[in-house]
Amino acid sequence: MADEPTTEVSEETPPMPTEEEMLQALKAVYDPELGINIVDLGLVYGVNADDDNNVIIDMTLTTPACPLGPVIKVQAEAVLGNKFKAVKDVDINLVWSPRWDPRTMASEEAKAELGIW
Whole-model pTM? Predict the structure, then answer.
């Protein structure tokens, strides 16, 4: 019998995204009240992956009592979990220090949209 080609499916795990790739993906998450993405607002303080392909996002909200905080958290988790197949789990670590200040933390584009000069 002649050698027939095999059609094996590779089970290779895709590579973990870089911090920059994850931050770029998180730009799809908008603060529903302000209509500006959470990265440009300066709400994301850091994105890290551990050795087990879990991602931890250190972020804050515009105020501790933000009523849409749970919505933003779910969207951020979904964006990274759905876009990057290597990501096993996403955990949002809400932090309040330093306190969010759009004058120093928001991008220039976000400041212009917020009317901060």
Answer: 0.85
Q: Which CATH architecture has domain 19-103?
A: 2-Layer Sandwich (3.30)
**Structure confidence by residue, pLDDT tens digits, 8-60:** 545 677 899 999 999 999 999 999 999 999 999 999 999 999 999 999 999 99
Q: Three-state secondary structure along 14-69?
A: CCCCCHHHHHHHHCCCEECCCCEECCCCCCEEEEEECCCCEEEEEECCCCCCCCCH
Q: 57 — phi, psi (to 5°)? A: -110, 120
Q: Would you list the domain boundaries of the chain?
A: 19-103
